[in-house]
Amino acid sequence: QVQLVESGGGLVQAGASLRLSCVISGRTASNTAMGWFRQAPGKEREFVAAINRIGFSTHYTDSVKDRFTISRDNTKNTLYLQMNSLKPEDTAVYYCAAAVTRAILVLTTTAQYDYWGQGTQVTVSS
């Protein structure tokens, strides 16, 4: 059974940085496209960033471009999200997601993913 476990969230001030990690077990990471999504209170879960299963292609939502960087280390079965210049509007629960695929694709919608982590809270104070 595939499991995703996120870590690295916390409470920070605006302008600070955080790095989220997501460890995948039960499936070789190189066979999964992966992504980060977030959900703020009262809002729908939204796409943040995604990376293909090999790691050379990425995609970001416009609001985090040039501030967030998604990466992966398949030797450690781990996905990362480096978040710099955090803003209060980045406050949300952040979820990692995995999709089993042989295609080299970047997936950007919730419906395309098969597995989800439990989420990690990121709170940015002004």
Short description:
With 126 residues, this protein is mostly beta strands. The protein has strands spanning 3-7, 10-13, 18-25, 32-39, 46-51, 58-60, 68-73, 78-83, 92-100, 115-116, 120-125.
Overview of the molecule:
- The chain is 0% helix and 50% strand.
- The protein is built from no helices and eleven strands.
- Strands 2, 4, 5, 6, 9, 10 and 11 form a seven-stranded mixed sheet that branches.
- The termini are far apart.
Category by helix and strand content: mainly beta
Major sheet details = 7 strands, mixed
Alpha plus pi helix count: 0
> Helix content range of the residues, please?
under 10%
Radius of gyration: 13 Å
Sum up the overall morphology in one term.
globular
Low-confidence stretches: none
Number of distinct beta strands: 11
Mean pLDDT: 95
Strand content: over 45%
Taking the alpha carbons of the first and last residues, their distance comes to 40 Å
Q: List SSEs in N-to-C order.
A: EEEEEEEEEEE
